[in-house]
Amino acid sequence: MNEFELKWLAFEITPRCNLNCIHCRTNASMGLKDVLKYEDIISVIDEIAEEFKPVVVLTGGEPLLREDVFKIADHIKSKGMRVGLATNGTLVDRKLADKIKEHIDVVSLSIDGSTSKIHDNFRGVEGAFDKTLNAAKIFKEIGINFIINSSFTKRNQHDIENTYKLAKKIGAGAWYMFMIVPTGRGEKISEELISKEDYKEILKWHFYTELKENEIFVRPTCAPEYYALCDMEAKKNNINYERRNLKFSTGGAKGCIAGQKIAFIGYDGEVKPCSYFLRSAGNISDKGFLDIWHNSKIFKDMRDFKNYNKKCAACRYLNVCGGCRARADAYYGDYMAQDPYCFV
Fold first, then answer.
1. pTM strictly above 0.70
2. What does the alpha-carbon distance between residue 223 and residue 199 come to, in Å, rounded to a whole number?
3. What sign has the CA pseudo-torsion 27, 125, 130, 165?
4. Could you tell me the CA-to-CA distances from 265 to 92, 163, 273, 274 in Å, in that order?
């Protein structure tokens, strides 16, 4: 089996969005227009299906704003791939939820706080919190599996534990805690990003929470050092730690798997190792996705672990952490540099 098999693809099918989130990588808004036509998207899916069968997550912007979203989903499924939908949930009513259940395998909802005050402030639109919770309620009632994605900065980090508890309370199958990388609108709030010191303490809290948690799957995202921390804490305290995986996971029990197991296609056709990555490895309108995946310099660099910066290359956790390449680039202008949040 190919060591670098595409397991998970985020496909940004629209830059349009009805919210105005402070950290949006796309600067999404209702004023933007779709770039990729239905035919463009289908062509890429057909090409990928020739070699890989990843989980394809339709994202945006707000993917439900595309009228052909379910038509796209059906085509993906016809190629033997599973389909995810990453939505803010604010547009969901019972009728739309029924369609989601019919066409989508798993859904993620974004909740960035345990109260409307915190979440709506983060999402830039009043009333967003209540609408997203209503979507979760409907999903639960009609049997749609959903996960919760939560992004954090200094603005809402005090509410991390309460947000996790809320995700559990509303019946999510998993909770993903995102450590934001400053891209898109996130660049404007770079002074708000969680400090390196707090980052380590938050990951430590997550580790001990995960140890006790047996109802909901929990995992930090864009936090590759977590995988090193788990080993360090387990050894230090003689803990028998076994990592669990979701059936819709990326299939990797490693920190950064950008360009190794996962990829991102932007609304403009730009292909990147992950959604937070600043640089494009190529555009699907110029080259095929598979050509970019196999031959672009950026993707090859992502897989050349020994040519990472000296500290990473010599680190015993290179193969389980690897550092966040997107964060290194955002801070230092070099995606092969040391992750600025490294504490190993």
1. yes
2. 9
3. positive
4. 25, 29, 9, 8
